[in-house]
Amino acid sequence: METETKTERRTKVDRLRIDPARKSRGRGGPLVLVLLILGLLGVGAIVYFKTQHQDRQPVALGTKTQNPSANLAGVGGSTSQPGAAGTKPGESGDVVLTVTGYVIPRERIEISPKFQGTVEWIGVKKGDTVKKGDVIVRLEDREFRARLKEAEGRLAAANANLANARINLKRQTELAQKDVDSQSAMDNAQRLHDAAAAEVITAEGLVALAQTYVDWCTISAPIDGTILEKLVDPNELVVPQSFGGAGPSTAFVAMADLNDLQVEIDVNETDLAKVKLNQKCRISPEAYPDKVFEGYVAEIAPEADRTKGTLEIKVQVQNPNHFLTPELTAKVDFLAE
Question: Which of 79-93, 150-164, 167-181 shows the lowest per-residue confidence on average (mean pLDDT)?
Fold first, then answer.
């Protein structure tokens, strides 16, 4: 009975033992997986190094490369453009530089008084179009008209004195020639005549001065243009200049000819070699990018801005229209010859 028990136990132990063949087969699976991972890593490393080598290959001369920052030019900044990428059908010249700036009138005029006065009437408002010579403002002129009448009265009196002195001189000349009266009497008559003539000249000057002030009370448009700003109202005091702080207005209106526009831009000093006077340009307002205008470089500032590292350039717009509004932004393409 005991012998059978030992046999059974030995049989059970033999069953629990792992066959060496099966044990070797179980170890092969992880080894294959590790080898597979190492192989993939090796292939990836080879691909990576080949890609890096290709990226470092030199670019042949004359090959055009695209500038990824071509459209990142901000207001007042400049960005170089590839030659053929910026051209449009029907236009000659490649784009060598693109800059964004502001549309401005070539001449902005602020009309100011020539003396202190009070606005009696103003006949324009912002946006009105006026012609040269149109009356736009009138100042109170009652005081100056009164002075004009006073000066005209003095002139009339001076003319009367001159006429009397002329007659007296003629009489004394005749008497002196006939030895009836002395030479000194004729000389005195001549002196009175000359003094009367001088009084006439003085009176004429006073009349002209008073008339000038009366004329200055009527302000006319100096050019054909558009009213950009209306700066005063009726009954408001105006002065020819300001001494700082709050005070009377120093101008009636601001106006400009909107048919004479420019684009003011700042060009980086690194791009100045691409810009020169009379260089042809293409202009398009940011608000209407499909509208394109021709222009040319009209002005290059003689001094750079050291703090910004830029130089101010003004591009004259040819044949502008209402799509170009002062102070709005516009893109300028500088074209190669």
Answer: 79-93
Which tokens sit at 173? 């000349």
Question: With b meaning 16 or more CB within 10 Å and e meaning fewer, what string describes 98-119?
Answer: bbbbbbbbeeebebbbeeebeb
Query: Does residue 241 sit in the same domain as residue 267?
Result: no
Terminal-residue alpha carbon distance, the chain: 118
Residue 273 in tokens: 């070699």
- Residues 212 and 157 both lie in one domain: yes
Lowest mean per-residue pLDDT among 36-40, 111-115, 142-146, 308-312: 36-40
Structural domain including 46 reads: 19-57
The whole-angstrom separation of Cα 266 and Cα 76 is 5
Q: How many CB atoms lie within 10 A of CB 324?
A: 21
For residue 218, what are the β-bridge partners? 138
Task: Give the chain's length.
Answer: 337
Give the CA angle between residues 236, 239, 241 to the nearest 5°. 140
For the chain, the domain total comes to: 4
Residues 293 and 300: their CA atoms lie apart, in Å, by 20
- Any idea what DSSP says for residue 321? -
Residues 48 and 99 in one domain: no
Beta bridge partners of 284: 331
**What is the full DSSP assignment across 148-191?**
HHHHHHHHHHHHHHHHHHHHHHHHHHHHHHTTSS-HHHHHHHHH
Please indicate, yes or no, if residue 12 is contained in any of the structural domains.
Answer: no
Backbone angles phi, psi at 197, to 5 degrees: -65, -40
Q: Count CB neighbours of 40 within 10 A.
A: 9
